[in-house]
Write a structure and sequence with these properties.
Length: about 475
């Protein structure tokens, strides 16, 4: 009998080799990568843990633990749902990448990263998870370069900070072992909290370790940046939840949640302010994600299952808006060789569907209705209104609303440039000019944009579509008591 964890780890790695061999045939490898990720995601999401299935004449059990090099790999219910969602999101990004052209190595490196992420979420103890995520980050550095040598600021900063995070987890693992022998040592527990807080702050890129997010989204192919922000960083969030689940005494430490509250609020405010002052859709994307991370940390700091549910909901919805905005940015850069607002002035008249992707994606990242991003943001505001004491409500709920307005203002400024009347259309009515120029966008591109826009609006209008996955993940984490 084959353990299901080995399938989730091994198949993407094998597919990575295959797609690398045929990397010049980008349409083919995009379809292969998307198919592999979609099948694995569907299997992880819908096959029960105890289910034994036949694959190639061999029996495969999802919950079968396995020993590899002396380390145990175990697929829990929460990790199964998390990996399933990560694979589904990756499949969508691979399909978009087939049109956005993020680089010849994007698909093979993306599959290899998926294999490492799968291993990171199922391996025990957590210090090996940190090691595997560091290796995934090293591959992500190559991925985000995307054939653009000479613009390495974002990739270099990302590599440095991800590498610096690894020693903090190694120290935390050593301290956890010591605490198991001395469970009454309060100073030792605080040292563990300090090490883990520093490590996750580096991995997530919260303030002041956000210095790689803006340059990466500005310099790298948009789909590659979103892959890092929506796939790799989602694995970091689930790694945090796994650690809290494995060591319940950490959830009782108030220091770690006080730090989350302070850093989360600071990160949300800084992200909202930077997005408000942005002049590039790349900054709206990067700093909008930064603000979203901050809001999620504030929600998690409430130490309630409701707060955890809000963070999980935001994690599930976040990739939708990012994918829409990344597709619009990729197409805009093809046409104008830039995603800066000024250089995209009047783009809506010549490429209305590309402009629609930029506008809708930006508003979804900001958290405006009726888009997917609104679901998570509204849940955060509503939860803070009920979970926090009345004296703290204006500080946190209003801060989240202000952050939403800040990111939305940045996207609105970009929309103003996109809708500016082009000087070349002065001789003819704008509507007629737009109809003639709209044909310049290929039909397959328009169909792809329509599909991602439909997903964004559908999840915003019908958020119950992710209820099953959300409840399944939430039921696997019991480190918070029900309020």
């Amino acid at each position: 009998m084959i353990a299901g964890v080995l399938v989730l780890i091994g198949v993407p790695l094998v597919a990575a080799v295959v797609t690398f061999v045929f990397r010049r045939l980008q349409t083919l490898v995009a379809l292969i990568a998307a198919a592999v990720a979609a099948v694995l995601g569907a299997g992880a999401l819908w096959l029960p843990l105890g289910q034994v299935v036949l694959v190639g004449g061999r029996q495969v059990a999802l919950n079968e633990p396995v020993q590899v090099l002396g380390r145990q790999l175990v697929l829990t219910g929460g990790d199964r749902q998390a990996l399933g969602w990560v694979f589904v999101v990756s499949a969508a990004l691979f399909l978009i990448g087939g049109r956005a052209r993020p680089g010849t190595a994007f698909f093979s490196l993306g599959l290899a990263i998926l294999g490492l992420v799968s291993a990171a979420l199922v391996v025990q103890p957590f210090l090996y998870s940190a090691l595997l995520l560091t290796i995934a980050a090293i591959l992500a550095v190559i991925l985000v370069q995307g054939g653009t040598p000479g613009r390495t600021r974002g990739a270099f900063r990302y590599l440095v900070l991800m590498t610096l995070a690894l020693p903090t987890f190694l120290i935390a693992g050593w301290l956890v072992d010591l605490y198991a022998l001395n469970p009454t040592d309060i100073a030792l527990a605080r040292s563990v909290v300090l090490a883990l807080t520093g490590g996750f702050a580096l991995l997530l890129g919260v303030v002041p370790f956000h210095i790689w997010i803006g340059p990466m989204t500005e310099e790298s192919p948009p789909i590659a940046s979103v892959f890092v922000l929506a796939v790799v960083n989602s694995a970091v969030w689930f790694m945090l939840f796994d650690i809290l689940q494995a060591y319940p005494w950490l959830a009782a430490q108030q220091d770690i949640f006080r730090a989350m509250q302070f850093v989360g609020l600071l990160t949300a405010v800084v992200g909202g302010a930077l997005a408000f002052s942005s002049y590039d859709f790349a900054h709206v994307l990067g700093y909008g994600v930064l603000a979203d991370y901050g809001c999620a940390l504030v929600a998690l700091s409430t130490r309630t299952s409701a707060g955890l549910g809000v963070v999980l909901l935001a994690t599930l919805m976040r990739p939708v808006g990012l994918g829409i905005l990344a597709l619009g940015m990729a197409l805009a850069r093809e046409r104008a060789h830039s995603s800066e607002f000024e250089k995209l002035s009047g783009l809506a008249w010549s490429s209305p569907w590309t402009a629609a992707a930029l506008i809708v994606g930006g508003f979804s990242v900001a958290g405006l209705p009726p888009l997917a991003g609104f679901v998570g943001r509204w849940a955060e505001v509503r939860m803070m209104a009920t979970a926090q004491p009345a004296t703290d409500l204006p500080v946190y709920a209003l801060a989240i609303l202000a952050v939403t307005v800040g990111v939305a203002a940045g996207a609105l400024r970009g929309m103003d440039f996109l809708l500016a009347a082009p000087s070349s259309s002065a001789a003819s009515p704008a509507p007629l000019a737009s109809l003639r120029l709209a044909a310049r966008e290929p039909r397959l591109t328009i169909a792809l944009i329509m599909a991602v826009l439909a997903v964004g609006f559908a999840l915003g209008l019908f958020p119950g579509a992710v209820d099953a996955a959300l409840r399944a993940i939430l039921s696997s984490y019991t480190f918070f008591t029900v309020p």
